[in-house]
Amino acid sequence: MFWLSTGGDAELDRVGVGIVGSGLWSGFYVTASQQHRRADAVAVCNPNLASAERLAKRHGVARAVADYSELLASDDLDAVAIVTPNDSHADLAVAALEAGKHVLCEKPMALSLAEAQRMQAAADGSGLVTGINFTWRHPAAARYARDIVASGELGRIYHLFGCFQQGWLRDHNAPRVWRLQRAKTGTGTLGDIGSHILDLAEWVTGQHIRSVVADLETFVDERPLPEGGRGPVDVDDAASVLARFDDGAMGTFTSSRYVPGQGMDQRLEIYGEKGALSMDFNDQQNLRVSIGRFAREGQMISAPIPARFGTTPERYLGQNVTNFIDAILQGEAMSPSFADGVHNQALLDAVVQSGQDRAWVDVAV
Fold first, then answer.
1. Which of 13, 36, 48, 152 has its CA 20 to 30 A from that of 232?
2. Which range marks the domain in which residue 232 is found?
3. Are residues 103 and 125 in the same domain?
């Protein structure tokens, strides 16, 4: 796999990246770092050293360490990519920034808005590059959709409908992994996949969600534990959100892990005064639209995506890593930024509060 890099001139000749965490997604960070022409994946870090060693061996990374402070003290380390459970994001990021290291963090940014703001405060004035990995901004359909909205071809936006749905938890005897524990993850499906569709809707339209009303549900409240017996599930299995955007647009969003027949169902539809568009991420090279020369009364048709927006799954899954490294080399800010992560965390907190209060809640940031 290869991710396109713009590169650039900077005092730093190469960027040494340490991958913190060794789960499934960590491999994408390692590969993207290795494929950048001016970067190296210098180490994998996990308190479970055997797990770190397995990932390092699989990808040919020279070093695996269990001690995070040892990683931060490494002479060849310039940046860290944090790919760990959400409860560790804030402490890991702040420690890295205090050690003078650039930080790319998985989403959601933290367990709470207060933690996310602590991360932002550590980054402010540091001169270091920071970013959040909102992956789904990069498929060709998403980038083309953003361009269409920015061009004004849809006019004023009236409605958005979005979903991100999976089916992997429908087995009631699936184990209670960390993603099902509030102390580890903060929220359930909302933060895991709902955060993506909310970020995507805002990024494509260039508008922020300002208030929400939500309904969250846990369908199975206990699951098998690795050590035997069963333990409680205290996060949401599904979330439904009504949202109001900056200019009054109305949004309806759902996320769930209990959708039969779906490995990953992610869609976004946008309707405006002059036209509409619809993207389905199971068909990422096509965008259905009703605009301009593609307008057909009562229907949307498939519009070819211009080559300049083209990107493949192999690229977009690691594109934020590439962008992060490029930003370091060029001395520029990265997008998605920590500020984007803070807003997204404020949005998640507002959704949770609304679900508890059964009322509309304003987004704090």
1. 48
2. 156-272+345-362
3. yes
Give the amino acid at 355.
G
Structure tokens at 223: 């699951």
Task: Kindly state whether residues 119 and 178 are assigned to the same domain.
Answer: no
Bigger pLDDT: 205 vs 140: 205
Instruction: Say yes or no: 181 and 64 in one domain.
Output: no
Assess whether 58 and 161 both reside in one domain: no
Instruction: Indicate whether 128 and 181 sit together in one domain.
Output: no
Instruction: For 46-104, write each residue's pLDDT tens digit.
Output: 999 999 999 999 999 999 999 999 999 999 999 999 999 999 999 999 999 999 999 99
pTM of the full predicted structure?
A: 0.94
SS3 sequence of 162-179: EEEECCCCCCCCCCCCHH
The per-residue pLDDT for range 287-336, each reduced to its tens digit, is 999 887 677 677 888 888 888 987 665 567 889 999 999 999 999 999 99
- Domain holding 26: CATH number? 3.40.50.720
- What gap in Å lies between CA 266 and CA 254, rounded to an integer? 10
Number of domains in the chain: 2
Q: Are residues 114 and 178 in the same domain?
A: no
| Whole-Å CA distances, 120 to 82, 105, 138, 218, 363 | 15, 12, 24, 31, 17
pLDDT for residue 23 is more than 70: yes
Backbone dihedral region for residue 233 (phi beyond 0: left; psi -120 to 50: alpha; all else: beta): beta
Residue type (1 letter), 234: D
Distances (CA, A) of 201 to 229, 310, 365: 41, 20, 17
